[in-house]
Predict the structure of CHAP domain-containing protein.
Amino acid sequence: MIRMTRWAAAMLLSGLMAAPAFGAAVLQCVPYARTVSGVDIRGDALSWWDQADGQYKRGHTPKKGAVLAFRPYGPMVLGHVAVVSKVLDDRRVLIRHANWSVPGSIEEDVLAIDVSDAGDWSQVRVWHSPTGQMGARTNPTYGFIYPARAKLHDFVPDPALGASVRFAKVDTDNWDQKPVPAVLRAEPAMPVRMARAGNGPVPRLKTDMRAIAFADSAPAERSLSAIISDVKRDAVLN
């Protein structure tokens, strides 16, 4: 979900950022998470936590197949949702999500770490594929939404959901199983560099260079009416 989600369109309306030239729409996090997790909730990501009440169990313990619901924060005004694909330990999971590092991108089995003081996954940092490292921003979350059946479903891109690019999966065998250092939890403003076994490099994703070219492209001039049309279309898709 970041950079040109529906929240980004809302930011465009406020004049805080410009729309990139990538076509009329990009894949959003909501339809991707709904397909992969099987959690049948619709609407903006920020509404998923409340909508899940009474429909699905919720909690603060990561489990495979669960949806991690992000709170609105900073430019991410409509929140975000991601699906847990593997639990590495109490503080680290791999997730699958869309529209985060690059508009419309699909990132599979990338790292998310809990940096909250209480260890309740209320504050997380997420892998940033273009730079091959943990993102610098700390993101607040609501918690996990657990599907009735923990199963990961394949996602086949559908043009009706918007244009998308897919990043390669990270090699999970290269991640060590060490816990997150305490200093990372105590100093959330510090850049996160994961501890690793031996002297080997931190795993990096091989990226689709089309995505990088898109991320680095100059913003296009677009009319307000075109932006509003995109917002309305995204609302129908979600």
User: Anything to note?
Assistant: Helices lie at 6-14, 29-37, 48-52, 182-186, 209-216, 224-237. The radius of gyration is 17 Å. The longest helix spans residues 224-237. The CA atoms of residues 60 and 143 lie 5 Å apart.
